[in-house]
C-alpha cells in the first residue's frame, strides 16, 4: 500500500509542478469543458415521407457501407442503418420498414460467407429480423435493378451472379427464402412490371425482355419472352428504365428511347423508337451518362435524364453536364438545367413532386411541379461514395 501511495503522491507532485511552471511562464490552465446536455432526440417527428435516403457504398472501405437518412426539409442528418459489405437498400411499400441486402464474411473480409435480407424498422431504425438467402447475390454497385420488390410488396427479388445470372425470391410476409429462378440466365436487372402485382421483367442478351410471374408460393407460375426490343450490338440500353403506371421507358447509350407496354398476360408491346437528340445535339455529341441516370414522373408524363456533350465510347457513366426534360406525349424536350455533375437520380411523387440527384456525396433537391426543374436545396456530404438516393411518397413510389 505504501508503494502505491508513493506513486500517487509522486504523480500529484509532478502535476502540481507542471501547473506552477505553466503559471510562471504566463500560461493559463484551460477552463473546464461544459457538460453536454442531451435533449432526448429530435423535438419534431420526421416521418418516412419526410426523409431522404442515401445508400452509401463507401467505396474505399466497402465492408462499412450504410444507408444514411436526412430530413428532406432541413437537410439535417437523422440517422443511419449499417449495411455491411457493399449493401443494397429499398423501402417497403408501406414505408414502415427498410430492407437491406448484404453479405457477411466470418472474418470480415474472408471466411465463410452469409448473404441475408434484413428488415429494419424505419421509424426506430432498429433491427427486426433477417432472412438467409443463397450466397450468390451480385456484388454490384447500387443500381436500382439489383434489389427490388414486386408491385404488391409481397416478394423481394435479388439479382444473383455466379457469374451465371439468377434471381432469389424472398417471401416478406412469411419471412422465408422461396426459390432461386435460374431461367433468367443470360438476362440481367430486375424490373418490377407495372400493372402486374407479382411480375418482374429482365433484359436478355439478345435484346428481348423476359417477364416472370410468381405464384402465391413465390415460385414461377408463368413466363413470357418478348421479341428483341433493341439491337444489342449497335444501340445498347441502360439497364434501369423510367416507370410509368402502364409502361417502361428505356434509353440507349446513343440517346434513343424504347417504350415497352406490359400486357395482362405478361407479353410486351413495343412503341416506335424515338430520339432525345436533334441535329444540333448530335453535332456536339450529346449523350446520356451516369448510373441511375433517368426517371419518369408518371402524372406529368415527363422524362428526366442526365446528359453530357463530347460523348465517346465508354463515356456512358460520365456525370451530368445538364439535366434534360422531355414530354413523353409529344417526345419534345421541354427544359434543360445544369446537371451539377450528378450521377444518379430518383423522383418523389406527390402533390409537389421532387427530383433528387446525387453526385457521389451531395444531394440536390429540385421542385418539378413545372416543366423546368427548380433548384430547392443541397444536402452536403450526404455520403462518401453514394450512387443511390431515394425518397418515399406512398405505394406508387419506386
Instruction: Let me know the largest β-sheet.
Output: 7 strands, antiparallel
CATH class: Mainly Beta
Mean pLDDT: 90
Output the number of helix runs. Answer: 2
Number of domains: 1
Keywords:
disordered N terminus; single chain; Methylamine Dehydrogenase, Chain H; mainly beta; 5-stranded antiparallel β-sheet; 398 residues; 7-stranded antiparallel β-sheet; 29 strands
Provide an overview of this structure.
With 398 residues, the chain is mostly beta strands. The chain has one domain (47-391): Methylamine Dehydrogenase, Chain H. The chain has two helices and 29 strands. The protein has helices spanning 2-24, 279-283; strands spanning 51-56, 65-71, 77-91, 97-105, 113-121, 126-133, 147-149, 155-161, 165-171, 176-181, 187-192, 199-204, 209-214, 220-225, 242-243, 248-251, 256-262, 268-270, 274-275, 287-288, 294-297, 302-308, 322-327, 332-338, 344-348, 354-358, 363-367, 374-379, 386-391. The strands form six sheets. The protein has a seven-stranded antiparallel beta sheet, with no helix packed on it. Strands 15, 16, 17, 18 and 19 form a five-stranded antiparallel beta sheet that branches. Strand 8 and strand 9 form a beta hairpin.
